[in-house]
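Title: Comparing notes on inverse folding

I've been comparing how different people in this forum approach sequence design from structure. To keep things fair, I'm posting one structure and asking everyone to reply with a full sequence. Here's the target:
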């Protein structure tokens, strides 16, 4: 293992983090503030939907997953995420469809966009350019244009907060103003505490990265931290180029926990990160403590990330921010530039030969002409 003290060498970190992924983590409060303002001038004349679907893949889907958790005890309409080529059968003219693709070029998302047009869903597109922006404009579909030039996963605030703002505007979600201001305040503190300049001895993200180094980090969330756990896992994948897993309480107590009965045999392979909350329900606390006892019998490395803030949005975002920093520090420990995702690009290139995306574009062109 490289010496964890590399995480105190600012020049070395900057050398490895060539495209400066760390700056997006450090500037999270600024991006959250800007993203919250994005759909301010946005006019929507859609009627009240019966269902809400957010379509997207990878870094463009996680905003929808976070929305789903956030909405659970606040919105009466069902929110689902579609990470597929095809829409669920129930999606129809009474469905509000957010189609999100940072590049605007992802074939699954374009395919779902086409289906949503055919089914006359009430569509809102979110992208930074590409075919999605082009066809949204040609077809006069409401569209949120997000800033260009970032990695999709680094634009999470721009792909997540507009969803909240639009739903608020449509009267489908309660006011988010107070939650947004608290979230920005909390993120200022979190990004300071986990910054590049803050030494390893006093920096949770740097410590977490050192703790999970060389293992498959397994992230356990619960309740509205379900998608947060998923986000941490995907950031370990894409930024740190590290396999990772995620699960959520209490479901994991009905299967995953049995897999730890002989934890010793896996101690070298896995580490576990528990997402914690000062106000977690008693039954969840009990479940977490019991699960920790079972896993620690095998000397598996355990860590905890406690959320900060009062409102759900701040709590969720505080853990997301710590996870983002941790994934970059883990990349640094591994000597890997966090930004490029070469394998995803290679696959997208290879898929061109199937002709699926070209066919979708041709159909979109036809629709745009009629
Ligand atoms: O983070 C990434 O780069 C990926 O997960 C992408 O978000 C994913 O491949 C989908 O691309 P896009 O976000 O451009 O639709």
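Reply #1:
Here's my take.
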């Amino acid at each position: 293992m490289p010496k964890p003290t590399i995480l105190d060498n600012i020049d070395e970190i900057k050398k490895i983090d060539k495209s400066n992924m760390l700056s997006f983590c450090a500037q999270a409060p600024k991006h959250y503030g800007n993203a919250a303002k994005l759909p301010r001038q946005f006019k929507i004349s859609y009627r009240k939907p019966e269902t809400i679907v957010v379509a997207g893949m990878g870094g463009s889907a996680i905003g929808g997953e976070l929305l789903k958790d956030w909405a659970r005890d606040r919105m009466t309409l069902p929110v689902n995420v579609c990470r597929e080529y095809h829409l669920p059968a129930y999606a129809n003219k009474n469905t509000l469809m957010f189609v999100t693709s940072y590049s605007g070029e992802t074939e699954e998302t374009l395919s779902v966009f086409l289906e949503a047009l055919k089914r006359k869903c009430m569509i809102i597109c979110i992208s930074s350019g590409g075919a999605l922006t082009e066809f949204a404009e040609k077809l006069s579909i409401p569209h949120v244009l997000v800033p260009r030039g970032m990695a999709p996963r680094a634009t999470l605030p721009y792909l997540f907060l507009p969803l909240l703002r639009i739903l608020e505007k449509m009267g489908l979600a309660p006011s988010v103003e107070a939650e947004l201001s608290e979230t920005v305040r909390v993120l200022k503190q979190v990004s300071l505490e986990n910054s590049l300049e803050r030494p390893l001895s006093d920096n949770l993200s740097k410590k977490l990265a050192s703790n999970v180094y060389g293992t498959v980090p397994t992230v356990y969330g619960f309740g509205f931290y379900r998608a947060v756990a998923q986000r941490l896992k995907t950031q370990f994948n894409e930024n740190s180029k590290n396999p990772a897993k995620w699960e959520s309480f209490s479901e994991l107590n009905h299967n995953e926990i049995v897999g730890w009965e002989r934890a010793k045999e896996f101690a070298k392979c896995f580490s576990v990160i528990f997402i914690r909350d000062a106000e977690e329900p008693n039954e969840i606390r009990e479940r977490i403590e019991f699960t920790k006892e079972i896993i620690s019998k095998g000397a598996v490395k355990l860590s905890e990330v406690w959320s900060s803030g009062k409102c759900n949005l701040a709590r969720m975002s505080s853990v997301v921010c710590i996870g983002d920093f941790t994934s970059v520090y883990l990349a640094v420990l591994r000597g890997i530039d966090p930004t490029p995702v070469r394998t995803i690009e290679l696959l997208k290139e290879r898929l061109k030969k199937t002709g699926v995306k070209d066919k979708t574009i041709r159909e979109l062109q036809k629709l745009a002409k009629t």
